[in-house]
Amino acid sequence: MSNQQKHWEKTRGLLFITLAIWFVFSIGIFLFGAEMNEVTGPFGYPWTYWFTCQGSLGAFVILIFWFANRQEKIDEEFGFSEREDE
Amino acid sequence: MKGNFIDNLPKVYGIYTGGFIGFIIIMAIAEQMGMTAKAIGIAFVAFTVFIYALIGWLSRTAQADAYYVAGRQVPTVFNGMATAADWMSGASFVAMAGGIYFKGYGYMALLVGWTGGYVLVASLLAPYLRKFGCYTVPDFIGTRYGGNLARFSAVVVLTVASFTYVTAQINATGTIASVALDIPFQYAVYVGLISILLCSMLGGMRGVTWTQVAQYIVLIIAYLLPVFWISNKMGAGFFPHFMLADEVARIGELEQQFGFVKNAAADLKSVPKGLAGITKAHSAVNATPWAFISLALAMMMGTASLPHVMMRYFTTPSVKAARKSVGWSLFFIFLLYSSAPMLATLSKLSLIDPNLPTGIIGKTFAEVEAIDWYQNWNQANLMFISDFNGNGTLELNEFFMGGKAVVLATPEIAGLPYVISGLVAAGGMAAAMSTADGLILAIANAISHDVYYKIIDPKAETAKRLLVARVLLVIIGFAGATIAAMEIQGILGSVIWAFDFAMSGLFFPLVLGVWWKRANRQGAIAGMLGGLIAGAWYLVWVRTGGSGFLGITQLTFGIFGSAVSLVLMVVVSLMTAEPDKATQKMVDDVRVPSGKSILGKSH
Lengths: 86, 603
Prior knowledge:
The complex is a heterodimer.
Chain A: H1 3-31, H2 33-36, H3 47-77
Helix pairs in contact in A: 1-3
Chain B: H1 2-7, H2 9-32, H3 37-58, H4 64-69, H5 76-87, H6 90-103, H7 105-132, H8 137-145, H9 148-181, H10 185-200, H11 204-233, H12 240-243, H13 245-258, H14 265-268, E1 275-276, H15 289-303, H16 307-310, H17 319-337, H18 340-352, H19 365-369, H20 372-379, E2 383-385, E3 399-402, H21 405-413, H22 418-456, H23 462-486, H24 491-515, H25 521-543, H26 557-575, H27 581-590
């Protein structure tokens, strides 16, 4: 397998992990919205309510930065990262 | 000089922010000295619009890559701010807290949808489209799939989606300008339009970028300052986001105590159009999982298909910067979106809690009608009370409010000085203008670059291309304003439709263009046109009394449209020949960040 294929394989792997985490916070939680809202969550808000207001939103922000860093590492590993002056 | 400007950005916008805060303080002092509310409103809107126009003029350019992609040198954090302003429209600013106030959980699917979509943007599309080096979204489609028909189909989808969206934004600018400047809506729409064109006409994407950063700073201050101030004033908490659990619980208690009394249809007839009462629990889960998830999903996929957002990531210096920039965009959006439910909570509690001095439920009608702010907002057609049961005291089901009032009136209800209301008007104007600018530019650029330059006259010189682009900008702006002046659709409805149109026609052709090498021209054309037609058909069908299926409503018709698009694209691609070697090589090149972009620097 060529360098480029390996790079793409890893990139695709990272995509699936990212989408899996995205799925949990955007869809997974709300499948059980009614049940989870009975429980008191962070800062004393009901769980589901908190996720729709802040939790999921914040998770997405962190997820994107995490993804960007991981992808940069993958690019560097295979020598595909951009030079600074480009 | 240009490099200098980029290096000095933090300083330039630091001074700008300081200056704006100084302006707020001067207005506050002027208010104490007797400046009228109307004069303050005019000063806020006029001052901020003047600054944007000045930035627009300073950013004028005669170069194609500055006009189309701001010279590809916008630093990540600033591009994040610009995208956030581009993204957060009049609907986010003025209508969102109101929607949460009235509909609670079911509505908050929009919060999740309008943020979660950025994960898709970052992981599936933005870095690859940046590597491609295109000027517009149809530029990518046209080059990846080849052929004028594919390019043109993308322009069609882009225009349908963005135009639906832009009329809503011009409508919002008009609404705010008409309130703040006290002129009729029909004229205010054109005042709004001229302000919008001042930002974008001379400098194209470069002008829009630097005005959007300035607009973001205004809109975020205008949104957060009242939320924090009200929360502190009510004693609800120093940092509302972490401290309103008691208030949320208290609203639940009051809802129990008052109950949700259903009004008779005959009684509701007397309520002015557009106003609503509180009929749903504030923090309870009041929608089925599918209703919530389908709306969130439609908004997420729509986010990843809307060209005015995608093209912001064409302006970053590198692929790496494009990825990071998506993160910053969402961070800046998060600041406002996570505050909207807090504002809704504070607004609702201050109105309905009889223990608070501002609470009106349980008071007599004579008492409520004597309150200054009630009179003002009743006159503005945003508040209404009516004694349905004839007992003389105001009940929860007898109080009606417009969605916009949550943002526009809460500062006044909580007893904040008028300077805050002026600030909020400036913020709403900034939010609507910045989005309208991005959208008009997206449409005009697609038509001037993809239709005029790439299809009609590929030999056109830069000066002529940019002239065409500017003329189109004005024409599209006026067309949008004319339709907005007719007031066909509410702001929020058209915004949601725009997402559905975009995802119906563009989501899969864009994503598969990068992630599926086998996708070919025939498949993409079938996917774009088939998806758009299917989505539009479903919308018309449901609007004309069709029953719909699978719980897909007129707000989520994009789910149907994009499913049709995916099936058509895969089936047609597999039935026709695979893309040629050159195209496959192009896809391979797009997938690695290093090396030259696919399209040249100036194309």
